[in-house]
Amino acid sequence: MFAPRGLDRVGSGLGCLLVAAVFSGCGGINCFPVTGKVTLDGSPLPDAKVSFMPSDDQGLPTIGVTDASGIYSLRQTADMEGAPAGSYTVRIATYREGNVDADPPIPEVRERVPPHYNLRTTLKAEIAPKANAIDFDLRSKP
């Protein structure tokens, strides 16, 4: 079946616009820097994955990994820093899957963060249209 003349071009154009919108992320001026510190029971939490998921389930997650001091900086990709302004659900986790077949083998890293900060997170954050400093002081026991 053939589309009316010109309609196939409109459909292709709309498809390209949709793909561009989904993958545009923070490449423009609508992204804002987000950094912070994560502690667990008052001590810095190194090597933790900090994931900001848009609360409205629209858009892409933004992720950072804490350094030895517990400091993270959010990135959408290696080339895109920051995140769009809005409300987010935050998950923080230290678990890393191991690989015994790797050379050298990579050991599994146990989860040190309680489930109410990752699998069943209660953490929320608001990213404002400015530079943001969002710290998380986690506790082993609620």
Briefly, what CATH class? Mainly Beta
Radius of gyration: 19 Å
Write down how many β-strands occur, each being a DSSP E stretch of 2 or more residues. Answer: 13
Estimate the strand proportion.
25-35%
How would you describe the shape?
A: globular
- The overall number of domains is 1
Helix content: 10-25%
Known CATH architecture: Sandwich
User: Biggest sheet: strands, sense, closure?
Assistant: 5 strands, mixed
Structural class: mainly beta
Overall mean pLDDT: 84
Which tags fit this structure?
single chain, 142 residues, mainly beta, Immunoglobulin-like, 5-stranded mixed sheet, 4-stranded antiparallel sheet, 13 strands, 12% helix, 35% strand, globular
Ordered list of secondary-structure elements with their pairings:
Blueprint: H1 7-23, E1 31-32, E2 34-40, E3 43-44, E4 49-54, E5 62-65, E6 71-73, E7 75-77, E8 80-81, E9 83-84, E10 86-93, E11 123-127, E12 132-133, E13 136-138
Parallel strand pairs: 2-12, 2-13
Antiparallel strand pairs: 1-9, 2-3, 2-6, 4-5, 4-10, 7-8, 10-11
3D structure, described in words:
The chain is mainly β. It has one domain (7-138): Immunoglobulins (Immunoglobulin-like, Sandwich), CATH 2.60.40. Helices cover 12% and strands 35% of the residues. The chain has one helix at 7-23, and strands at 31-32, 34-40, 43-44, 49-54, 62-65, 71-73, 75-77, 80-81, 83-84, 86-93, 123-127, 132-133, 136-138. Strands 2, 3, 6, 12 and 13 form a five-stranded mixed β-sheet that branches. A four-stranded antiparallel β-sheet has the order 5-4-10-11, with no helix packed on it. A hairpin with a 2-residue loop joins strand 7 and strand 8. The longest helix has 17 residues, at 7-23. The chain is globular, with a radius of gyration of 19 Å. It starts with 6 loop residues before the first helix and ends with a strand. Mean pLDDT is 84; it is low at 7-24.
